[in-house]
Every structure is written in structure tokens, then in C-alpha cells.
From TrEMBL:
Its EC number is 3.2.2.-. It comes from Oncorhynchus tshawytscha (Chinook salmon). This is Queuosine 5'-phosphate N-glycosylase/hydrolase. The keyword Hydrolase applies. It catalyses: queuosine 5'-phosphate + H2O = queuine + D-ribose 5-phosphate. Pfam families: Q_salvage. GO terms for biological process: tRNA modification. Keywords: Hydrolase. It comes from the Eukaryota.
């Protein structure tokens, strides 16, 4: 079987053939202008990692790298079946929803003395033990417990075969972001976020890329963050950032697709429309980045180091902060282990 196109090239291919999702040039320029105004803000730097991950251990902690491995391995499918029935996890007086329930649950478990960041433990924990770790504060459990258990124990076994930590597992890739993504995808089946679109094998690699970006964020906080080819990473194609891109006018859904999403239709992983939403989001952010770089070069006479990962790190919390304003734009619903 032919190797899939890398995520950036996959995004370009999907945009060229998309039937229901479209990149809007005027919106792209508008978002680039918005980011240009924020170009010197900490929100658009790797140092914003801790801000984006407030429940993570200190980046200098021995647990930090294994924490991001555990969280990123289970970082998928948090949307509720009904908006009034969301999983909730309360930690230190704050109640969290969505992805943050996972972060809160893992950090809560660490405080409770459960060695949840140790591969020797999570490689062989039972479904019941993981259910206890991920327990909700209400009657709505975190979705897909069995699948989370399967991918976490699988990941733990792989780490044990490669030195017993995420740091030792990833070290053969050096500081090469491309090699890191390849190593993760080759070694961990649950990270193989691929599809066939218009007869072409493509890849989106949301979790593999965000794992590399999180590794970089921690290393940057430790002043060990030199990864010269980090720009090979694209945005992390999920269901929240596409909604923000539509809200900002950089992405457009056809009337047919918009109605389908408003009707609450579940899209299967690999469905043409699902691939178009994710693939076009990748290329949309690439276009935003390219325009931002041009603005910085033309107006400031400087090169720009704001990459697609940083733009994603900005857009994801932006979507959460402005969720009421964009509530009329439906997210797409896909139950899978990839995002």
C-alpha cells in the first residue's frame, strides 16, 4: 500500500477536490491580520504552553513528559450526546468539561497517589481502574472508556519496550519533528489517523502532531526547545478549531453540509465530509500562516516564527472562550479515537 500524503499535502489535496468545505481568501487575510496584531503576545509563543495546559505538572517536573503522553494518547471524543448531559470533573474547586476533564482527572489521580504517569502501571491497569481515574462528578461518564483503556495500555507497553518513558521512546528521533511524528505513527497504531479520499491515501495525524508540539512546549519551558523543523507540523484537525475558522470567515461550509450538521447527523471517521472539514482546516491554517509571515516580512522587515502549531494553540482556546458567539455554527460529530 502506498504511503499516505503527509498532513500538509493532504490538506492541499483535499482543498483541491472538496465538494462541501471551502477556504475563503478574504477570511484568511482577516485572521492573519488579527494574529499580526497579537504577534508579540505571549499567546503566540511556545511559552504559552503552560497557559494552554494549566492542569499539567510543571514543565520541569519528572512527570511532565509522561503526563502529556498519557493525556494525548486519550485525547479524543469528548463531545456530549446532549449538551445538558456533559461529563464533569471538579478539581481544586473548579469544574471542567470536554478535554479539560481528562487533564483534571489525570492530575487528580496523581494527587491521589495513583501512578498514572508510570508506564509500568498504566500498561497493565484494568478498565475498572481507568474508570476510577476518569470518574465523572455526575451521571454522565467520559465517553469511550474501553477504547481509552485499549490505547493507553497499548501505549504503555510500547514505552516499556523503549526504555520505560516517553522521553526514552522519542529520543531516537533527536530534535527532528518529522522523525518524531513518523516514530509515533509507526510504533503506536492508535495514532495512525489516516483516510482514503478521492482514491488517495491521506493523513491528518492530529494526536501524533500535538504530542510532538506538547513535547516541544515542555522542552521550550526547560530552555531545551530547539527543534529547527517544527514548521512541518500543521494545525491539529479536530472538531473545535474548524468551528472557529468558520466563525472567523476563513472557512465556509456548503448549505447542504451546514444543514446536515445542524440536524445532528453523526459522520463516520473517513466520511468524505468529515475528511473535507479536517483537511480544509489544515490547509486554511497553512494559508493563514503564509499570509501572516508575509505581513511580518513586509511591515516589520523580519522573518516570522509563528508556526501552525502555535496558531492552533491560539485558536483552540479562542473557540472555547467565544463558544456562545459561535453556538449557531455546529461542530461535526464523529466518534473515533483520532480526535
Amino acid at each position: 500500500m502506498e504511503a499516505p500524503l503527509p498532513p500538509r499535502e493532504s490538506g492541499r489535496f483535499v482543498v483541491e477536490h472538496s465538494q462541501d468545505v471551502f477556504v475563503e481568501e478574504e477570511g484568511v487575510r482577516r485572521v492573519a491580520e488579527m494574529l499580526y496584531a497579537l504577534r508579540k503576545s505571549e499567546d503566540l509563543t511556545a511559552s504559552g504552553w503552560k497557559k494552554a495546559n494549566p492542569l499539567a505538572p510543571s514543565p520541569t517536573s519528572d512527570h511532565a513528559l509522561n503526563w502529556v503522553f498519557v493525556v494525548d494518547t486519550m485525547n479524543f471524543s469528548f463531545w456530549p450526546e446532549r449538551e445538558d448531559q456533559q461529563c464533569e470533573v471538579t478539581y481544586r474547586g473548579t469544574t471542567y468539561y470536554g478535554y479539560m476533564t481528562l487533564c483534571a482527572a489525570i492530575t487528580r489521580a496523581m494527587e491521589e497517589g495513583i501512578p498514572i504517569t508510570e508506564p509500568s502501571y498504566f500498561s497493565q491497569m484494568s478498565v475498572e481502574e481507568l474508570g476510577r481515574v476518569l470518574r465523572s462528578d455526575n451521571n454522565t461518564p467520559m465517553p469511550m472508556l474501553e477504547e481509552r483503556h485499549q490505547v493507553l495500555t497499548e501505549g504503555g507497553r510500547v514505552l516499556l519496550q523503549h526504555g520505560g518513558s516517553f522521553r526514552s521512546f522519542i529520543s531516537p528521533a533527536g530534535r527532528d519533528a518529522q522523525k518524531m511524528v513518523e516514530l509515533i505513527v509507526d510504533s503506536l497504531p492508535s495514532y495512525r489517523d489516516e483516510a482514503t479520499y478521492k482514491g488517495k491515501r491521506i493523513s491528518l495525524y492530529k494526536r501524533a502532531q500535538i504530542l510532538v508540539a506538547d513535547f516541544w512546549g515542555i522542552m521550550e519551558a526547560r530552555v531545551e526547545g530547539d527543534m529547527p523543523n517544527l514548521d512541518i507540523l500543521t494545525m491539529f484537525a479536530d472538531y473545535r478549531v474548524p468551528q472557529a475558522l468558520v466563525h472567523l470567515g476563513a472557512l465556509r461550509y456548503s448549505d447542504t453540509l451546514m444543514q446536515t450538521l445542524r440536524n445532528g447527523e453523526l459522520l463516520s471517521s473517513g466520511d468524505r465530509r468529515e475528511v473535507e472539514i479536517r483537511g480544509c482546516s489544515i490547509w486554511c491554517v497553512e494559508k493563514i500562516k503564509a499570509h501572516l509571515w508575509s505581513l511580518v516580512e513586509d511591515r516589520d522587515g523580519q522573518s516570522c516564527n509563528i508556526n501552525s502549531a502555535i496558531i492552533d494553540f491560539y485558536l483552540w482556546p479562542y473557540a472555547k472562550q467565544h463558544h456562545k458567539e459561535m453556538a449557531h455554527i455546529p461542530i461535526h460529530h464523529t466518534r473515533c479515537i483520532y480526535y
